[in-house]
């Protein structure tokens, strides 16, 4: 008997027809404009002025960027998942959740712990779920917060499961701004339990905040110079009567070693440490990566992702499932487009109809095997040259699909010693970590570059955009933060463009043309300011000095300029 599909992919035919028609009309107008420009340059008449040539060059660059942008709208698709058709819980694969934090002053421990608790409360078998927190700052307050979160989770997780809560981030759940209608018919039992849990949460908050106040200036370790610290929260939870409760997800605190004399490679380096540490502890075949301020808003996201990863038709080549980034702190005006709507509403659904969306930093379920490169070579010596000299980790590479959570205290102690070795700052020396294995180091945008290389290797990805946001985070809400973030993004994009991995050279022979055009658009995005500055200043100066750079009103070519201006305004309006 043929099993029912786990998901459905629906091409947006009407959108594709409209987009292609618009592209054809816009392209026709561009041809008319460039015909006028070239005829003015080539025909025997007074030579064009320097401003004329600069405007022409600006129009050329903008047109090339626009042309690459059309690849996003060529074949948009939408997807639907059917989690109810998944196998029984016992047959589901394991998932390791990676959460990264770096500075407890900029990223409050209470907010980080709420993200941790929401990840632990995912609607997924507890014995198949593990949560790892990377603390690059090595702050004691974060470790203390993890211990308190583990204690509170003993009460919070059973409460979520018992009453089927849909909002499992405690801070959001207990917020007066949220609709707390998750309990079954608001029964008396539910209300009583809710009040008990709320009291425990207030105590949890008080302890975490107090820990931060007490440590403050007494913090002994430096965020840039400290030894590795690994702590596993794995004591068996019991209720007040001493009776064992239901099993909880494994919770692990990881602070890798950092020394001023060794490059730490920022977030990519932290994620690679988590890959190695989790490899010898749980070794789940799939990983979920989250920023510390992006909590799990929909507890069913793991099951939705498995609808794609467990599909035998697409799974062999599938590398990751990307969920959109959505934010809870954006007002209705959103003048800086903090919601990144053009990316997650237009571009990523368009790429989903090609080879798949780009890796977007957070909110994605990655296949562990995809980050390990080509494993066809099974020679142990070769594996050690690639992955390093940890026998435990080499064994885990051979057993990616054998979930192996820590079993007892003795093995836990040995594994923690091995984990500290894997988290040392010298472990990656003379290995392929960051070069061919794990998250790659060639750019400060480790997500963009890693996803690009995966697509170049023939891997595919999927964009899953359910009606209820799977994850919610905090976005930039002021000009200064937006400029800092935008500068980092554009620097990372241009860094790849100027390297040997330029999408126009490296990607063209390894990816479909339309997929290459999508990456090419972002590669040229950092150059957008050049024609923008030129067209924002030269036309006005030329008008004041009587220098012609546009067709005269009696020339029919003027129509093309008017059309292009109209299209540009229309395109900008779609972004908002």
TrEMBL record:
InterPro entries named among the record's database cross-references: Cellulose_synth, Nucleotide-diphossugar_trans
| One Pfam family from the record | Cellulose_synt
What keywords were assigned to this record?
Cell wall biogenesis/degradation, Glycosyltransferase, Membrane, Transferase, Transmembrane, Transmembrane helix
Q: Can you supply a Gene Ontology BP term from the record?
A: cellulose biosynthetic process
The entry's active site is 136, 447
Say yes or no: keyword Glycosyltransferase present: yes
Per UniProt, subcellular location reads as: Endomembrane system
> Binding of UDP-alpha-D-glucose: at which residues?
106-107, 136
- Give any GO molecular function from the UniProt entry: cellulose synthase (UDP-forming) activity
Q: What is this protein called?
A: X-BOX TRANSCRIPTION FACTOR-RELATED
Q: Which species is this UniProt entry from? A: Salix viminalis (Common osier)
